[in-house]
Amino acid sequence: MTLCDVAIIGAGPYGLSAAAYLKSQSLDVRIFGEPMEFWADKMPKGMLLRSPRVASTIADPSSAFTLEAYESQMGISPVAPLPLKTFVDYGRWFREQLDSDLVRTAVAQVRREGSGFVLTLTDGTTIRSGRVVVAAGIGPFRRRPTAFADLQTSQVSHCYEGRKIADLAGKRVAVIGAGQSALESAALLREAGSEVEVIAKISSLRWIGMHGWLHHLGSISKMLYSKYEVGPAGISRLVASPNVVSRIPLKVRDKIRTRAVRPAGARWLPPRLSSVKISTGRTVQAVKSIGDEVQLKLDDGTERRVDHVLLGTGYDVDIARYQFLSRELAAQVRRLGGYPDLSFGFCSSVSGLHFIGATAARSFGPLLYFVAGTEFASRGLASYISTHAQKRSMVTVS
Fold first, then answer.
1. Of 1, 130, 270, 318, whose CA is between 20 and 30 Å from 144?
2. 180 in Cβ contact with 313 (< 8 Å)
3. Are residues 166 and 304 in the same domain?
4. How far is CA 137 from CA 152, 286, 336, 371, in A?
5. 104: number of Cβ within 10 Å
6. Residues 282, 230 share a domain
């Protein structure tokens, strides 16, 4: 049985960043997963990152593997907003800089044994680790409203489940939602030749940075906004300090989180949506499959006939939906709804089991939904583990 100090499940931005920080502590670290898989395979081709460039660097302890360093080495001219392909390639380059073992075989199950953990891979290989860091992202958490549950997979999909925009070219598509994923998907579909309508329950679409003058007040703007641009004036500055957010009572913390990431589109999207039909203040009340068509009945009594429904309906975090967590282990994790209840060091209620990324957002705030949160997460995780190191020789398995 192979041994390691820390097993990281997930090779996206959070998993890669955590590996960089933990390796700097001379720990034996294994990363499980295909690098940047979700970003490369599940997001629409042609997408642009909503986050500003300054918030799109994957953190490492020496700041050697920045986005700018990658672009400089590859001879790529910096642009904003950042193309998805550039970010994916940057993440894979980041992985290549790490002197750490990458295991591309998926983890089938994690279970607790003795004072450590045993990971069983899909090929039957077993790995024993003193600690497990879950950085597996939001893939399993896609929200699919019950109204669409009976549609065939050819008739409905989520924005971030990998359906190719090109496959819907020339088709009639209803996009449900008012956030970045819905609005950008609508723009990409229209540009591919689809007939698109966005159906959103909010009364009017929102745009990030729509009060642009607040960003041009010098030192006052710096007091109101962090460089990460997560949340409106004031809240933006607060959520940039996750340790502060973690000390706020949960009910207030939830209100801050909800307000900071409410549905909105990037400021560069409106021109691309000029020829897209937008129906706001509307909800879908009934859905029916009629042959190859989908019939949508809205709350105002109107009807739509489309070839496909694309859901930009967000995510519901629930760690029990991570299939690799054994049922017994998942049940031992104290939760805040579906989120793990985490303390300093991103520790769950199960000793040695840590969660970083979006699953940590209810404990530490909405910065953890974004790449910008990798520095806080990895630094805090590495600081805790380095002072509570459980080397391979200390791991016992019953």
1. 270
2. no
3. yes
4. 26, 31, 17, 11
5. 12
6. no
pLDDT, tens digit, 9 for 90 and up, residues 47-106: 999 999 999 999 999 999 999 999 999 999 999 999 999 999 999 999 999 876 789 999
Q: 40 and 108: one domain? A: yes
CB 60 within 8 A of CB 98: no
The pLDDT tens digits of the residues spanning 100-126 come to 678 999 999 999 999 899 999 999 999
| Total count of domains within the chain | 3
Q: Judge whether 295 and 303 are in contact, CB under 8 Å.
A: yes
100-to-7, 207, 250, 351, 371 alpha-carbon distances in Å: 11, 41, 37, 24, 21
The verdict on 63 and 15 lying in the same domain is yes
CA 381-387-388 angle, 5° bins: 85
Asked if 152 and 295 sit in the same domain, the reply is yes
pLDDT in tens, 320-367: 999 999 999 999 999 999 999 999 999 999 999 999 999 999 999 999
Residue 80 CB neighbour total at 10 angstroms: 12
Could you tell me if 250 and 388 lie in one domain?
no
**How many Å from the N-terminal Cα to the C-terminal Cα in the chain?**
13
Residues 270 and 163 in one domain: yes
Q: Which two tokens stand for residue 265?
A: 């589109």
Domain end position, chosen among 260, 275, 290? 260
- The alpha-carbon radius of gyration of the chain (Å, integer) is 22
Strands 308-311 and 156-158: parallel
Contact call for residues 303 and 296 (beta carbons, < 8 A): yes
Q: What is the CATH number of the domain that holds 330?
A: 3.50.50.60
Interatomic CA distance for residues 44 and 173, integer angstroms: 15
Q: Which DSSP state fits 57?
A: P
Range of the domain at 194: 146-206+263-311
CA distance 324 to 159: 24
pTM of the model: 0.94
- Is residue 339 located within the same domain as residue 389? yes
The helix (H) or strand (E) run that includes residue 239 is helix 235-239
